[in-house]
Recover the amino acids of this structure.
């Protein structure tokens, strides 16, 4: 039950990111916003981690390069998300950004030869239909740049 509640709280907090970033003045750089977003999470986790299972979360020197690479990619993703929010509405950016999981499923099917279940196929069709409705590739759309940045990230 605790894990389920944690997932719900995380989902709610994640849902607030887009509207909150839109409320931040344009003068503040997307890199600054992303830095503070990640730094606050780092501080929170640094305080929380000692109280969790210390064996599971113990850092190994050989894994440090992978952690740094993953952290840099995460920071880049957050920066691109914030930039996309500058040029497109929250609704577009959230839907287009969520399309990344569809890309993973499609790449897994073609590159790793993984089997897609009927539910996964239906979900991919619904996601593609939703993306078609937004039409991020409409060059005449005033949100084109934000939509493309959201798709890249």
């Amino acid at each position: 039950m605790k894990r389920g509640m944690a997932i719900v709280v995380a989902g709610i907090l994640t849902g607030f990111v887009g509207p909150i970033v839109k409320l931040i003045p344009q003068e503040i750089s997307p890199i600054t916003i992303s830095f503070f977003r990640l730094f606050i999470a780092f501080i929170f986790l640094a305080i929380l981690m000692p109280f969790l299972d210390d064996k599971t979360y113990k850092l190994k020197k050989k894994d440090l390069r992978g952690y740094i690479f993953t952290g840099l990619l995460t920071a880049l993703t957050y920066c691109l998300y914030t930039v996309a929010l500058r040029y497109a509405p929250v609704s577009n950016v959230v839907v287009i950004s969520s399309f990344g999981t569809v890309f993973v499923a499609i790449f897994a099917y073609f590159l790793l030869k993984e089997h897609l279940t009927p539910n996964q196929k239906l979900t991919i069709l619904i996601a593609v239909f939703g993306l078609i409705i937004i039409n991020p590739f409409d060059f005449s759309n005033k949100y084109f740049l934000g939509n493309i940045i959201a798709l890249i990230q």
Q: What stands out?
A: The CA atoms of residues 105 and 121 lie 9 Å apart. The two ends are 33 Å apart (CA to CA). Helices lie at 2-15, 17-23, 30-48, 64-87, 90-98, 100-111, 118-134, 144-152. The first helix runs from residue 2 to 15.
